Task: inverse folding
């Protein structure tokens, strides 16, 4: 009996020891930067499956070197009420590696930050959808604005191009500019110190609108028909747009988009789902045609640097090298139809690319060379993403 008791006791202690050992083994996130450049504005995406947790609301990410909690943002991508993903932006030294520990936190324990990545539907200004971060701002146009043009009502807009709002402050301006514009206090078409909207889109592609090309003619969709905000926060804003099926010389094209903008980046990410086309063209308006189109097929970008008001402006389309085929300058007499185009491959009914701008007056870029250096660095980063390992 004594021998049996010892065996049972030993077995129980072994099980307890193993259980404690498993419980005490923390989940570690290792992030590695393979590039010889510092990276401070790239977002790490972690799912529940990666972290082996059921609830992301109680997850904290602690920097093991500084012993401090990272700013995080949770996202419900599918709108079912359950958070699917948690984000954070580590500061990574050139050729650096950092480790983070996943810990359980109480409500309110994670550090907070201002919601600089913001977007919303704007019913008070027909039906714009507008988004921004601490660097740039954009907007697109909805069905009411389209109907106003079709019914010859003043104030409408018929365009699937992307408008650029030239901000030169790092705090949010969307709500403030709309309020001041609509109340008559001031106009966002005049720069009172924060920037302005003096970027003409019209029927052009603006900054990143798409077109289908048949022979030598480009075809476009009209305004978006449906919208859904996915997330806003300190790290990312993202939203869904849907478009009515459109015709490209007899081809019916179906289109929807998820657009996101992360903290510290000048380029929005476009994830477009398409049916009816094998390749697509993302464009940059040439405005007065007094600027310079440049591009780098190996690095996957096309850019347009132009005089703009009392300053200068660079716009760009950028895509992974396996998506970016080529670029071209399309110059025609018809107003607003001249664009610089990136030729992009559609794979499994999807195409992903980035589009955005850099305004000299914002102080971010002093000249065309600095803008193109930014594009090359951004391209290197998407071709060589931060390497993330989760253990155990």
Result:
């Amino acid at each position: 009996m004594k021998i049996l008791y010892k065996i049972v006791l030993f077995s129980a202690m072994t099980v307890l020891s193993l259980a404690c050992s498993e419980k005490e083994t923390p989940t570690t996130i290792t992030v590695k930067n393979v590039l010889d450049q510092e990276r401070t504005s790239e977002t790490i995406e972690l799912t529940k499956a990666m972290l082996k947790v059921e609830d992301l609301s109680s997850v904290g990410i602690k920097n093991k070197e500084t012993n401090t909690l990272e700013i995080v943002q949770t996202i419900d991508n599918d709108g079912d009420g359950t958070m699917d993903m948690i984000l954070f932006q580590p500061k990574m030294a050139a050729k650096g590696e950092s480790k983070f520990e996943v810990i359980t936190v109480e409500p309110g324990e994670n550090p907070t930050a201002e919601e600089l990545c913001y977007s919303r539907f704007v019913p008070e200004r027909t039906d714009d959808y507008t988004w921004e971060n601490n660097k740039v701002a954009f907007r697109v146009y909805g069905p009411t604005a389209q109907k106003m043009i079709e019914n010859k009502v003043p104030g409408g807009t018929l365009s699937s191009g992307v408008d650029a709002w030239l901000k030169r402050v790092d705090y949010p301006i969307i709500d403030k500019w709309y309020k001041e514009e609509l109340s008559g206090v001031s106009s966002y078409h005049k720069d009172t110190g924060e920037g302005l909207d003096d970027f003409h889109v019209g029927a052009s592609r603006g900054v990143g609108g798409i077109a289908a090309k048949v022979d030598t003619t480009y075809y476009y969709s009209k305004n978006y028909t449906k919208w859904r905000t996915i997330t806003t926060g300190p790290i990312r804003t993202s939203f869904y747009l849907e478009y009515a099926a459109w015709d490209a010389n007899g081809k019916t094209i179906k289109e929807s988009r998820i657009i996101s903008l992360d903290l510290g980046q000048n380029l929005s990410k476009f994830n477009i789902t398409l049916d009816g086309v094998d390749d697509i063209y993302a464009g940059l308006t040439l405005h007065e045609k007094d600027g310079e189109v440049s591009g780098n097929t190996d690095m996957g970008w096309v850019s347009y640097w132009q005089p703009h008001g009392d300053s200068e402006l660079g716009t760009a389309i950028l895509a992974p090298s396996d998506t970016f085929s080529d670029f071209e300058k399309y110059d025609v007499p018809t107003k607003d139809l001249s664009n610089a185009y990136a030729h992009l491959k559609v794979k499994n009914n999807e195409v992903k690319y980035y589009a955005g701008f850099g305004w000299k007056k914002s102080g971010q870029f002093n000249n065309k060379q600095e803008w193109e250096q930014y594009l090359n660095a951004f391209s290197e980063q998407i071709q060589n993403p931060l390497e993330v390992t989760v253990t155990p």
